[in-house]
Amino acid sequence: MRTLRAPFTADAGRLPVVPSYRIREAAELLGVSDDTVRRWVDAGRLSSHSEGSRQVVDGAALATFAQELADAGERADPGPVVAQSARNRFVGLVTKVVRDTVMAKVEIQSGPHRVVSLMSREAADDLRLRPGVLAIASVKSTNVVLELPAR
What we know:
Layout: E1 20-22, H1 23-30, H2 34-42, E2 49-51, E3 54-58, H3 59-72, E4 88-99, E5 103-110, E6 113-120, H4 121-126, E7 134-140, E8 143-147
Antiparallel strand pairs: 1-3, 2-3, 4-5, 4-7, 5-6, 7-8
Helix pairs in contact: 1-2
C-alpha cells in the first residue's frame, strides 16, 4: 500500500484533526477498488459529502464501516504475498478509544484485522487518537506501538 496523506493542521504541531478521506484513500484502506466504494456510497451503505470538488468520507464513519465489513467477513482478496517483514505494520483506522485515568485501550481496524493497543492515557492524548484517525500499528512480539503516518 502506498502512503496515504494524513489530515494535519499547522497550528496543531502536525497532530491529526478529525479526518475525512477521499474515495481513493477510503478504497485503499478498505482493500477494495474506488468503484466499489462509490457503489457502496450510491447504495447508501457508506455516507459521503463534498469538500470542494471532491467526494469524501468522514473518518469516523469509515472506521465504523471497516469494522462492520470485517465483522461480516467481507473483504477483498489481498492476492499472493510478495514480501514479508519480521516487523509487522498494520495501516488502519482507529475505531475505538477507551481512556481511564492512567491507561488507554485503542482499537484499529486494518482490513480484516482488528488490532488492540494498550498505552498510557498521556500517549493516546498526545496522539489525539479518536475514531476515524489514520494510524499505523507496529507489531513486534507482544508489544503494539501506534505511529502516525508522515504527511
